[in-house]
Amino acid sequence: MSIVAPCYNEAECLREFHRRAAAAARASCGESFEIVLVDDGSRDATWSIIEALAEADPHVVGVRLMRNHGHQLAASAGLSLARGDRVMLIDADLQDPPELLAPMMARMDAGADVVFGQRGVRHAETWFKKASASAFYRLLSNLAAVPIPRDTGDFRLMRRRVVDALVSMPERQRFIRGLVSWIGGRQEALVYERQARHAGTSKYPLRKMIRFAVDAITGFSIGPLRVATYLGLFAAGLALLLLAYTLWQWAAGDTVAGWSSVMTAIVLFGAVQLIVLGIQGEYVGRLFQEAKARPLFLIDRVVTAGNERALPAEFCSLAPTAQREVWEATRAATTLRA
After folding, report:
1. Is residue 179 within 8 Å of 76, Cβ to Cβ?
2. Which ranges carry the Glycosyltransferase 2-like domain (predicted)?
3. Fewer CB near the last or first residue (10 Å), C or N of the chain?
4. What's the CA gap between 16 and 172, in Å, rounded?
5. What is the pLDDT of residue 338?
């Protein structure tokens, strides 16, 4: 059993998260578990706390990225190192309770491939956050080519085959909950109450939320391109009507020297063109990023049982199965030397 938690400036939450996650894992799996904590370029004491936890608890695997890659890539880095037959992905801020591991395991014992947390009550969130999240999920569910459950985050328990398929996907602008939905299999929802943060502040301000929403929509739907087409057709229809009106006015001899109508038409059609170009540019930009084929993330160091493990430079470019084999060999070799 693996528990993967991306961490960015979570020094105030980490020790309590470790205590609760370890207790939940022991209750469900005995001692056969690991907790993978991924430091996503934190600026506070997150990494030093992870090192201390790894030294005190052999179940902890500390992963430090070379820089801040963002939540989705940090989660992907942790999943690439997770060795469990079942893997729980969860944030370290304790808004999603680790104690739900037990009911998730029960659902998986009954045959589920993925058990995802679906947010019922959301505590300590502003009305704007709730309203914008609700609107986003409903828009996405209507646009996406695959059904993506509403009101869900990345909090979920996955089987090994789902994790391997997820890690093997090369997309840079990752939307993990959408990728898991695309993989398919038997996926079940577990409704729960989302708690307030244990400490600290949210790492998703409005700017990041908008960027995340754009990645989700453009990654799983070509709907915006169709909207651009519809806007173009609508603008063309207006242009024809304006042309007909202009000809009719000319035939009636009612021509007025002025610029208001001309400027209105220019602004209208210019705005439509810029919207269409912007939507197309978003997709072209994604193609440009993917074409460069850079590694999704770069790992600076890995610490387990208080000892630092060195991974080969090409680790991030390996297939998921090869990554896991290299990681297991690295851990075994270091342990034997010790």
Report:
1. no
2. 2-165
3. C
4. 32
5. 37
Residue 36 contacts residue 63 (beta carbons within 8 Å) = yes
Residue 74 pLDDT > 60, yes or no?
Answer: yes
CA proximity to 159, closest of 206, 81, 104, 235: 104
Domain count, the chain: 2
Judge whether 177 and 152 are in contact, CB under 8 Å. yes
> Phi/psi class of residue 111: alpha, beta or left (left: φ > 0; alpha: ψ in -120 to 50)?
left
Which of 189, 194, 104 has its CA nearest to residue 150? 189
Angle of the 320-337 helix axis to the 71-81 helix axis, nearest 10: 60
- Which of 185, 6, 17 lies closest to 91, judged by CA? 6
Residue 268 has pLDDT above 80, yes or no: no
Instruction: Report yes or no on whether pTM surpasses 0.85.
Output: no
Q: Are residues 280 and 195 in the same domain?
A: no
Q: Are residues 231 and 311 in the same domain?
A: no
Indicate whether 305 and 282 sit together in one domain.
no
Backbone angles phi, psi at 309, to 5 degrees: -105, 135
Termini Cα distance of the chain: 25
Residue 88's nearest CA partner among 169, 6, 14 is 6
Higher pLDDT, 197 or 134: 134
> Does an H or E element contain 195, and which?
none
**172 and 230 assigned to the same domain:** no
**pLDDT for 149 beyond 50:** yes
